[in-house]
Amino acid sequence: MTGLFNGEAVAKIRRYYRAAIQMVESNRTGRAMFAGFRATTRSFGKVLHQLWLEVTGFTFLAIAVIGGLAGMREYGKYQSGHANGPGRLLLAVCFTVTFAWFGATSFWRLKRRAKG
């Protein structure tokens, strides 16, 4: 067994799943319950995806603010001559821009998803 499941176990699980679905869908009440379950999970999935985008967007923007503060500190060191070169300042700027981009695109994806 090389992975988490071997091929036989996965095939067996699939057979049981298909049999359970066929049993549920064989009568009217089962189909209605299955349709309700599908609608509920789809709704929860959309809400959880929206929450995921909001949380990751906020987290990336917060980290970008921290990077911006580090960039300002490095800029002060660079201007006063206490830094060996502009390397750490450039690193802080690139870090801040990258994480700000990640945060902004997360919120853009959220807005685009809400529209369409």
SSE blueprint and pairings:
Layout: H1 7-24, H2 28-80, H3 87-115
Helix pairs in contact: 2-3
Structural class: mainly alpha
The CA-CA distance between the termini, in Å, is 44 Å
Low-confidence stretches: none
> Total number of β-strand segments?
0
Main sheet overview:
none
- Overall outline: elongated
- What does the radius of gyration come to? 25 Å
Strand percent estimate: under 5%
- What is the average per-residue confidence, as pLDDT, rounded to a whole number? 89
Counting structural domains, the number is: 1
SS field, number of helical segments = 3
Q: H/E series, N to C?
A: HHH
Helix content: over 70%
Write a structural description.
With 116 residues, the chain is mainly alpha-helical. It has helices at 7-24, 28-80, 87-115.
Short note summarizing the structure:
The chain has 116 residues and is mostly helical. The chain is built from three helices and no strands. It has helices at 7-24, 28-80, 87-115.
